[in-house]
Amino acid sequence: MGKGGMSHGDDQQENMAAWLVGINTLKIQPFKLPELGPHDVRIRMKAVGICGSDVHYLKAMRVADFIVKEPMVIGHECAGIIEEIGSEVKHLVPGDRVALEPGISCWRCESCKEGRYNLCPDMKFFATPPVHGSLANQVVHPADLCFKLPENVSLEEGAMCEPLSVGVHACRRANVGPETNVLVMGAGPIGLVALLAGRAFGAPRIVIADVDDYRLSVAKTLGADEIIKVSTNIQDVAEEVVQIRKAMGAGVDVTFDCAGFDKTMSTALRATRPGGKVCLVGMGHDAMTLPLTSASAREVDVIGIFRYKNTWPLCLEFLRSGKIDVKPLITHRFGFSQKEVEEAFATSARGGNAIKVMFNL
After folding, report:
1. Residue among 171, 175, 195 nearest 183 (CA)
2. How many CB atoms are closer than 10 A to CB 315?
3. Contact at 8 Å (CB) between 159 and 97?
4. What is residue 356's three-state secondary structure?
5. Cα 329 from Cα 28, distance rounded (Å)
6. How far is it, in rounded angstroms, from Cα 59 to Cα 20?
7. 75 in helix, strand or coil?
8. Which residues partner with 80 through β-bridges?
9. DSSP 136
10. Helix (H, G, I), strand (E, B) or coil at 7
11. E-strand stretches of 23-150
């Protein structure tokens, strides 16, 4: 198991966490902490968001090849307050408010040595089986993966650094800048952070497409230059590509597919200009049938991303400076009781007007 949470002192309350114990079954139960290592810190969780992967685990007890085989603490988008530090920790003190990067890499493999630690095959990532997550009163985590929040950044905003990091990493991979016109396929939480990150990286024009009117209206509020209502019918791709190009008013330099379906990826490949890039961010389908030959003939590059690396400092700077405002994405808030945990996950799973559901512990 990875790092987790439970207090040590007899004067402390028993540490509780939200455990995934079966399909559609979460239980708040005791969660025992590992010993605090010299480079670790103990954090009292204050804000934890629900991610789509959390909901997938709840519904199916698996995400792709990651299978929940025994009870697991859920949650990985989080921020909290330092309560105890290890003997070798110098940059944090009790009382500091921090955002947690949820993945612990080995730092020994080839990917880690190359600086691409997000691709570490031995990654221990919150709430990815068999590693426990962070929807708990307290957790223990390496100090170097805890980032102090600027004074004007809230704990909720700190927890939002995790999804925002996906957008930041995507923009870095696609080299988004002031001369990059961006198309975003999908206006869910990740599509919306891709929109926010793209603007912060300097993209002059961003068009976003989705099937849902409400999410498109949110995208418009967050600064999308144009919004396009699309269908789920793959027969409509050609017509919608014409709409997208017209809305952009110029070539689409980079497309972020934040849904990951045959139709969204086909649209991305066809809409992107010759020599442009398509970045596959969402993972809706494991296998897709795509028009790769025509995309190859136009030298459209297809880029994959997996999580993120070295993004928390930049995310926090974007939040501190006001270049990005994630607060409008937090649509629902819940406390940490058995009833509220169940209601929160049901709210997130329903979608509708729920974008980011947040626990306040």
Report:
1. 195
2. 29
3. no
4. strand
5. 26
6. 10
7. coil
8. 45, 98
9. B
10. coil
11. 25-30, 40-49, 62-63, 66-67, 72-73, 77-85, 97-100, 103-104, 124-125, 138-142, 146-148
Q: Where are the alpha helices (DSSP H) in the chain?
A: 52-60, 110-113, 155-159, 161-173, 189-200, 213-221, 237-248, 262-271, 292-297, 312-321, 338-350
Local confidence pLDDT in tens for the 361 residues of the chain: 445 443 344 345 899 999 999 999 999 999 999 999 999 999 999 999 999 999 999 999 998 889 999 999 999 999 999 999 999 999 999 999 999 999 999 999 999 999 999 999 999 999 999 999 999 999 999 999 999 999 999 999 999 999 999 999 999 999 999 999 999 999 999 999 999 999 999 999 999 999 999 999 999 999 999 999 999 999 999 999 999 999 999 999 999 999 999 999 999 999 999 999 999 999 888 889 999 999 999 999 999 999 999 999 999 999 999 999 999 999 999 999 999 999 999 999 998 899 999 999 9
The structure tokens 């991979």 sit at: 173
Amino acid (one-letter) located at 280: L
**Selection from 169, 171, 167, 73 nearest residue 119 by Cα:** 169
d(CA 164, CA 146): 16
Q: Cα(273)–Cα(268) distance, rounded to whole angstroms?
A: 10
Amino acid in position 98: V
For residue 177, what are its two tokens? 């800048």
What is d(CA 1, CA 133) in angstroms, rounded to the nearest whole number?
10
Q: Which two tokens stand for residue 218?
A: 């949110």
Residue 142, beta-bridge partner list: 40
Instruction: Tell the residue number behind the tokens 């198991």, with chain if given.
Output: 1
Q: What's the one-letter identity of residue 181? A: N
User: Residue 283: helix, strand or coil by DSSP?
Assistant: coil
User: Are 42 and 84 contacting, i.e. CB atoms less than 8 angstroms apart?
Assistant: yes
Tell me the C-alpha distance between 182 and 25, whole Å. 40
* Gyration radius of the chain over CA positions: 20
Most distant pair of Cα atoms in the chain: their distance: 68
